[in-house]
Amino acid sequence: MLQKLASFAGIKGPVVTIVMDGYGLSKTEVGSAIAAARKPNLDRLFANYSNIGLRAHGTAVGMPSDEDMGNSEVGHNAIGAGQVYSQGASLVADAIATGTIWQGEAWQQIVAGAKAGTGSKPGTLHFIGLFSDGNVHSHIDHLKAMVLRAKQEGVKTVRVHILLDGRDVPETSALEYVEPFEAFLAEANTDGFDAKIASGGGRMKITMDRYEANWSMVEQGWATHVLGRGDQFASAAEAIKALRAKFPGTIDQDLPAFVIAKDGKPVGTVEDGDAVVFFNFRGDRAIEITLAFEQADFAKFDRVRVPKVTYAGMLQYDGDLKLPKRFLVPPPAIQDTMGEWFSKAGITQFACSETQKYGHVTYFWNGNRSGKFAGETYLEVPSDVVPFEQRPWMKAAEIADAMIAALQSGKYRTLRCNFANGDMVGHTGNFRAATMAIEAVDLSLGRILPVIDAMGGVALITADHGNADEMYEIDKKTKQPAVNKDGTFKAKTAHTLNPVPLILYDNVSGGKLGLKQTEQAGLSNLAATIANLLGFEKHAKWDESLLEIK
């Protein structure tokens, strides 16, 4: 059990954690939708309440290096776990570097399945996943390593189904990955080895839906990758160029699906006896397509035909659901989370977000665990299925409604929520919409904070990573926004490497409490900080508290 804190009995009212997704602390106001937004509540918080910066990227959240951006999954893992675990990118890179991935049973089954095929005909090994080096969902180097290993182990035919990024990398960078990769495949295609790109499309158009927000994306992906249905092109590079010309101004993540064909026939449909690897290591946008391949009684859409394949994910995407059944690299075994130990201490907990980030304040917060702990209550606000820049306020008001009701019920000792606006709208690259997204969150804070006061509580207001703080690509030489050929600023749709805020909203301790800035302060320090506010010592495995008791 968590031990009582000798120096502080704890806040009598509720302790609330508010995650403003995608809200980083930029070093400059240039290109910052946050700086441009009208946000009187946040301005007041920064001016009048104890606040510090937290590291939310790179090694602070388990990524391989400090050049790697953070993301919502690793960020919420770190918050909820109170400690840093090596994450997907690191796990996969290490497994490839040491060769343990090739010795694993899953990879051996994939290779054996592709070589065996059906009857006397060998099968094809298909790779599906996000096609970039963003290192948030996947990395193209992992794909290249698997293609070469498959050739080395005697697989004769490989087909790659690419999901264009433009979100974790520059928004129109697809050809910078496709053209070198097509050259890489051409060089590999010797000694009877045949590897080709077979299909593709933007990550926000096909395949990579999450939290069941838009199953039609997955249906479109299935039709494209598996059935080979869609507009046909001779190569992926040709497809991208033609689609950009047909849909001017469309960024990579939103490009329509395409199929590579020869003489009118798709070059890489998925058939009985084939093997399929979904090579994303991050789970949220991998689960639905995995269900479509693995679930016998699948009913979300008509699959038309269901090829009998050997399927694997890069990692296990859901440990409780055992999804997928076969995975190439074991995920981090996250133990001793805040949710678990608060539950053991009898602390009632409430978690809320809209669909887009619901899994982050539940599944990822609790160490990639699907089931609730005793004393936990979850509330999901269904997200709109529209482009986020068209409704940048998203469901902030409804989340505020839910949080206010939960606070006023008096049932919960600690509550948490995530406002998705700064991240989801930031990813669109639409500067004006992003300012409105921040303003919507600010408005919701202005509603929630007085209720926290009325209940005798405090709040920790933070973020999981940056995004809306840098909406333009910044020229490294001039430090000014990079410019497109037409004179417009070049949008940045990826997460940032900036620190995130941590604000202690406290009107009940009489100035007794504050936050201490340390050089290594990061998201993983939040668990101990929350525990102290509740009147408990931190768990022995958690990183240090940032709470200063005066």
Beta-strand proportion = 15-25%
Q: Portion of residues in helices?
A: 25-40%
Give the CA-based shape: globular
Helical segment count:
18
CA-based gyration radius: 24 Å
Number-wise, the strands total: 18
Cα distance, first to last residue?
A: 26 Å
Task: Summarize the biggest pleated sheet.
Answer: 9 strands, mixed
Low-confidence stretches: none
| Assembly status | single chain
Mean pLDDT over all positions: 95
Protein structure class: alpha/beta
Topology, element by element:
Elements: E1 15-20, H1 33-36, H2 40-48, E2 51-54, H3 72-81, H4 88-98, H5 100-103, H6 105-116, E3 125-130, H7 140-152, E4 157-164, H8 174-188, E5 194-202, H9 215-225, E6 232-233, H10 236-246, E7 258-262, E8 265-266, E9 275-278, H11 287-294, E10 310-315, E11 327-329, H12 338-344, E12 349-354, H13 355-358, H14 360-364, E13 376-381, H15 396-409, E14 414-419, H16 421-426, H17 431-454, E15 458-462, E16 500-506, E17 513-515, H18 526-533, E18 547-549
Parallel strand pairs: 1-14, 1-15, 3-4, 3-9, 4-5, 6-7, 9-10, 10-11, 12-13, 12-14
Antiparallel strand pairs: 2-16, 5-7, 7-8, 15-16, 17-18
